[in-house]
Known about the structure:
By secondary structure, the chain is an alpha/beta fold.
Amino acid sequence: MSWQPEIDELNHRKELAAQMGGTESIAKHHARGKLTARERISLLCDPGSFRELGELVGSSEYDENNNLVNFVPKPIVLGFGNVDGRRVLVSSSDFTIRGGSVDAILIALMRVMPERIALDARVPYIRLLDATGGSVKSFEQIGRTYLPENPAAGECYQALNSIPVISAVMGSVAGHPAVQACLAHYSVMVKKTSQVFVAGPPVVKAALGYDITKEDLGNEMVHTYKSGVIDNAGDTEEQTIQLIKRFLSYLPSNVSEMAPYVKPDDDPSRKEEKLLSFIPRNPKVTYDAHKMLEYILDKGSIFDIAPNYGPSRITALARVNGYPVGLMCNDPRHLGGSMDDAATNKVTRFLQMCNTFHLPIVYFADEPGFMVGLESEQAGTLRLGARLICVSASTRVPWMTIVTRQLFGVAGGLHYRPGGMYVRCAWPSARWGSMHIEGGVMAAFRREIETSPDPEATRKYIEERIQVITSPFRTAEYGLIEKIIDPRETRAEVCDFVNAAQVVLKEQLGPTSGPSFIP
């Protein structure tokens, strides 16, 4: 006897699940300029590679003869797929069903958290978020309330320290899904059509008494420039998904694998003549740090992480002779390159991620110090800086610093990582010290300057006298700087370091012995 009737019912239920919230609901979704949950998965995954899990989970209605008359699928599509040939787990919120709300009851029906599934499979996990949090309607449906819990907290923490986790905000996201946006190594959102907030405008109105739009509360201007909650933003959903793919291309599938190597088409010995005069002799003149990096790293390989948040420090993924690296560089066009609270926060998370996934760190240092002033003090830059000191010191991946112009103060000291494979060199344009000569002279020679017949002339004379001994060659005479190099030879030096680092990285595979990744 054939089981064809059951197979027919299975296919019928799959067809109902594929209809999501129905034709009308999907049309409203498209009218907002948004793709559906399944369309997003089709964009992300290689054609034909997606295999859904829990496809039949949902709410059903039966007639008196136990025939299925209605089926509403769960508001999340979950399954394995391939992204550029690599296996990943993907979850995609379905806003066409109850606004994508996945409350505690539905989670209980699903039984297994996506983070646990990805952990067990040792594959990257990608969340495509377009959902609200819990709904008051669910209280009425079940006839009671329930204690708020975070049942997946342990799995989320383990995932962040074991596999790449990426969150993409594809619509209006509030409550628990908004927190999920942060529980990731990399987060993106879509300009003009996505927002992130703890609670939406109606809740803000009830709690605080003022009106605000969703956009003003949590659009990309709020979260990629001011809060730092989201790293990057795409102009469209298609571009946002391309950002996800590119980020993933630099990372291993889990902490026990090496980051993916790509055969380079760039000469490791390439010399750029422009680097010889790239750093201005006048320390008050800025330069294009991104252009400098392009002259040194593999061509076209630099991928900026959170470029608009804490822009005084560039954090990026890049390739050196085909190998992925974590790239840092001070940008003098923003706050002179000094570290404010935002940049310090960003760098802390970035170093944790590089250490977790065994990416060697290459830092081009032009650090004037932590940002000073009232706003900096009120923002708690000191405490954030203290945390960064601990995180930097506890990293164990190979680290190379190239001092291009300046290193001053405590923040300047963060170019150095004691222990482990560490390499440091400097360009002839480099200068360093516990503080800048200009401010230091006034502090150390105040009485001599103020009591002189011509205080301004005396100040300039003392500054010029001390400037002479700030030459990096004086430091090299005492063996306190390992190597001074011709800037044009920087690419060859960095390639040699990253090539040598591969031996160390292979021995470090597995859970990190350094700082855990904490968003």
